[in-house]
Amino acid sequence: MTDTTRYYPEHLTQQFHLKDGQLATLRPIHPEDAEIEQDFVRHLSAQARHYRFMSYLNELPPSMLERFTHVDFTRDMGLIITVGTPPDETEIAMAQYSLRDDRTSCEFAVAVGDDYQGQGLGRRLMETMIRAAREHGLRHMFGLTLHDNESMKQLARELGFRIRIHLDEPRLVEMLLDLHPSNEGEFR
Hints:
Blueprint: E1 14-17, E2 23-28, H1 34-43, H2 46-53, H3 62-69, E3 77-83, E4 90-99, E5 105-112, H4 121-135, E6 140-146, H5 150-158, E7 162-165, E8 172-178
């Protein structure tokens, strides 16, 4: 077993129905998901890609695709939501976090496919990521978004994140969640 699969958090897997009745599965990502991950990014609108990657890339470069799909679950997290079953499985949303250098906090990112917006998928992914980060004993979850990404800022507020304008880049907003509110921590 490789380092990236030593700890596969199967307990985070959930099945639920979308508003249209489709069965969806939220689960940790596998290395074999590279093709559906790339298809997901390719099919995002330009605005959705810009919000997620803060650039207008059309597809993931090979190094980024490998980083997103070959996750060392002992330190990082990668989740996807899919519909259908292999080989006809389609990714409709994704989220990940990466351990920061301080080893007590993580940085997150999330994206939901344009056709699946407004169904609570971002919330479901974020709640699962928060749970996983707490299980890993992390103290803070941190994220950046563009200032005009109102839906991300609203979701972050609803989940208890503190939000402020980035000190060095005013077009960005910083979001921070104390994962264990009894711990006093500074917004850094």
